[in-house]
Amino acid sequence: MPLSNKQPNQNVSQGSDNSESSREDAKPDKGEASRYKAKITSIPAAIGNWRIEKDVDQMTDKASCTAYYHRDSQIQLNEQGFYISLRGRGGVKGITLRFDEKPARELRLATDIERRIGAVNFNRAEFNELQSSKRLRVRVMTILDQIYQDDIDLSGHLDALEVLRSPRCKGNAR
To answer: Of the ranges 15-19, 29-33, 77-81, 138-142, which one carries the lowest mean pLDDT score?
Structure first.
């Protein structure tokens, strides 16, 4: 499961203007998603409301990156998915999601894996909708029958996802 237990580093760089790998001219302006025009020269880095950290698997030496939401490092984005960890906060029993100003989706019960890892793990349809959204509201019923709610400003998530999928976040680190 790609959910990271690592606590993100608080020292992040915003990049510099002299980067030869600048993404500013890599793609045409896509509106909100390109507002940040991230010029990442090193990781860790910050894009919008996300801090990107790189980790190296000690057994395989493969590098991977995770983006952590600035207000809560238990809200994480990686190249394959979006996760909200409620481990230590009651686990996951049921999930209701609302994207942008659309009506809230129907309550869905946690999958077996979500119950075991104590985290909301967006399915493919949810992750696809997240990629076209600017705001996410979440309501989770925990196994302890408590309610966890959050209103997540997704600013910069598409640019962060682009970095997560880039060569800087893949392959062997050595």
So the answer is: 15-19
3-state secondary structure of 22: coil
**Dist CA 133 CA 144 (whole Å):** 30
SS3 66: strand
- Structure-block tokens of residue 21: 């790998």
**Helix ranges (DSSP H) in 132-172:** 157-164
**168 secondary structure, DSSP code:** G
Cβ–Cβ < 8 Å for 160, 33: no
CB atoms < 10 A from the CB of 147, how many? 11
Structure tokens that stand for 169 in this block: 């976040």
Task: Give the C-alpha distances (Å, rounded to integers) separating 136 from 9, 20, 75, 149.
Answer: 24, 34, 12, 11
Domain locations in the chain? 32-169
**Residue 158 near residue 129 (C-beta atoms within 8 A):** no
Tokens matching residue 89:
């906060």
The helix (run of H) or strand (run of E) holding residue 135 is strand 135-141
Beta bridge partners of 140: 95, 148
Name the pTM for this structure.
0.75
Give the Cβ contact number of residue 11 at 10 Å. Answer: 8
According to DSSP, the residues that pair with 66 across neighbouring strands are 53
One-letter identity of residue 2: P
